[in-house]
Amino acid sequence: MAILRFQALKETLNRKPVKIDETDRRSELFGRNVFNETVMRQFLTKEAYQSVKDATLKGTKISRGVADHISTGMKEWAISKGVTHYTHWFQPLTGATAEKHDAFFETIGDGLAIEKFGGTQLVQQEPDASSFPHGGIRNTFEARGYTAWDPTSPAFIYGTTLCIPTVYVSYTGEALDFKTPLLRALQSVDSAATAVCKYFDKNVTKVIATLGWEQEYFLIDSALYASRPDLQLSGRTLLGHSPAKGQQLDDHYFGSIPSRALAYMRDLEIECMLLGIPVKTRHNEVAPNQFELAPIFEEANLAVDHNSLLMDVMDRVGERHNFKVLFHEKPFAGINGSGKHNNWSLSTDTGINLLSPGSTPMKNLQFLAFFVNTIKAVHDHEELLRATIASASNDHRLGANEAPPAIISAFIGTQLTEVLNELEKVTDGKLSPQEKTDLKLNVVGKIPEILLDNTDRNRTSPFAFTGNKFEFRAVGSTANCANPMTVLNTIVAKQLKEFKKSVDALVKDKKMKKDDAIFNVLRDYIKKSKKIRFEGDGYGEAWQQEAKKRGLSNNKTTPLALRAKVSKQTIDLYKEMKVMNKREVEARYEIELEDYSMRIQIEGRILGDIARNHVIPTAIRYQNVLIENVRGLKEIFEKDFKKHSKEQIGIIEAISGHIEHINADINKMVDARKKANIIEDAEKRAVAYCDEVKPFFEEIRYHCDKLELLVDDETWPLTKYRELLFTR
Ligand code: ADP
Ligand code: MG
């Protein structure tokens, strides 16, 4: 094993950047492998094309007959590009994407064969997927789940396979994937937001949610990765002493990108272009070997698919460059973790970004309505938002000593805070003409189109307004964006529905003018949601105290946070907005608890193994060297030997002490694990793993890391932090 570490280092140091040839312009590459507008016009009949467009824009059904035409067109296009197989591409609750490839090839008797892909195969499939998690919804004896075509996300070619984005549902129509609830949430925010838009512009007939994610990740050489069993099996290092130099100097952030990483990024970007993923920015992140990739934002469902696809593509391109991509939220203790900011907004079919201040008071009133409603939604459902980003790996960011904290709050900047403070003073009831003019001219009318606060926005806020969108920054780097997007769009939909009801009631019952009613309702919302707004530093003890006083939740661990997912409020919310029924909600809760316990269990096992099989034997071997040395000194110096061996004896004792602690803690951890394993109830088991098993990780690690500092570097088997983070 010790040899593996040095072999890996040698291999890494000898690597050269892979040469990337970019002959075509990126704009020409863009979407080349996507069944997009241009291709559809070319390969589909007019009727079939229109049918796909209507399905995308209006949600209309595609008839079987037309599906046959579409599948034929898709097949012809795919075969013309060398494709041999097709697959339904979906996102089961494992967190990865799933596919099962079938050949177009079919025999027709008499030793003859054809390429076939019919409407039925396009529209529906039954993958034998009995081992995907389903939280009891789809018991194997009950029925099989099936995948169904999602025409709103275009088919694409990856390698030699035609991939068709699909939902994955049980025979009773219950969601078994991430996409189904997302599509339902997007539909509900569409209808709620469109109804509110009608106050301001009758021409709006559709509102879409937009998402621009920012993916953070680490790149580690594949040989170094292979030398660390903890990274390999759990995605993070479970031990390792922090290096003398980490990220203190901030010299990596936005610095020049190392050449091997740059080659990787260019290769990756070309793949993204072909797949129609509009990646635009790349840069170094705070930690050494940490990077970020961000696209131009898109319609949320498509953006979610693109992020899932991207993570897969990142892995595969990594292989060509001898890189392993680390998506884990905290691969290295003491070093910056990785997130996936979800930039979110709402946009009308008339081309208006509803969270972008406009040029007229009327447009700004519309902006304020959506802005304030979003804050109110976050206020009312802060625990659910926290729950949606909870995972064993994200616990190392949220709730640990890293911003953003586990407390959900919204940052809006000083300019908009002032506007809301003014609006809070609006008269109760009908507004005088003068007050209204004054509001329109001096408050609403004064919101600048470009908000200066964007630049110095608060980096520690989990949910920040950044000029023309909200940025949900607490999402973890491994997460499927569908989860946070489902929650955010559902709570905003619910809030907008309430808003409409209240405004309409004031207009009808109190005979108020529409504007007066809007001002009145917004004023109430601003007052009621005040405690969720926080402009200060979210990092640290002061905010924890303050948040507690305000009555905000601070669920530091996943088992605690997840509970909000099955609260009565959540179940009612999902039911009312037709996003999920109780069974679907509870199934997901169970899956996530299970996932949590399993991950902690796996980490515990790995840590125990490494400590016992790698660390302790190495420490003993080194201790023997020292003992041998002391024995020699005694032989030479006789009575005086102590004077010359003080240091060695000290280390011998220290090593024994650490070994003793490690052994004792591993034994205790194994006992705690055994106790946790026999707990039947998934929630209680997760809590036991969190409170009884996990605390030993830190203890064991502490003593292992001390040994790393004591033992001869030549014999240490595990590649060290310095080497993992700084070898390029
Ligand atoms: P950063 O947050 O790193 O400073 P930007 O503010 O430029 O970066 O934008 C980050 C992300 O926000 C990008 O992916 C961009 O596409 C996305 N974004 C910009 N406008 C919107 C919008 N209206 N809706 C959703 N995402 C958006
Ligand atoms: Mg950002």
From TrEMBL:
One example of a Gene Ontology biological process annotation: glutamine biosynthetic process
One annotated GO molecular function: glutamine synthetase activity
Domain GS beta-grasp: 84-173
InterPro entries xrefs: Gln-synt_C, Gln_synt_N, Gln_synth/guanido_kin_cat_dom, Gln_synth_cat_dom, Gln_synth_gly_rich_site, GS_Type-3, GSIII_N
SMART domains referenced in this protein's UniProt entry, alphabetically: Gln-synt_C (SM01230)
One Pfam family per UniProt: Gln-synt_C
PROSITE patterns the UniProt entry points to: GLNA_ATP (PS00181), GS_BETA_GRASP (PS51986), GS_CATALYTIC (PS51987)
SUPFAM superfamilies from the UniProt entry: Glutamine synthetase/guanido kinase
Domain GS catalytic stretches: 178-615
Family statement: Belongs to the glutamine synthetase family.
UniProt-recorded name of the protein: Glutamine synthetase type III
Native source species: Gillisia hiemivivida
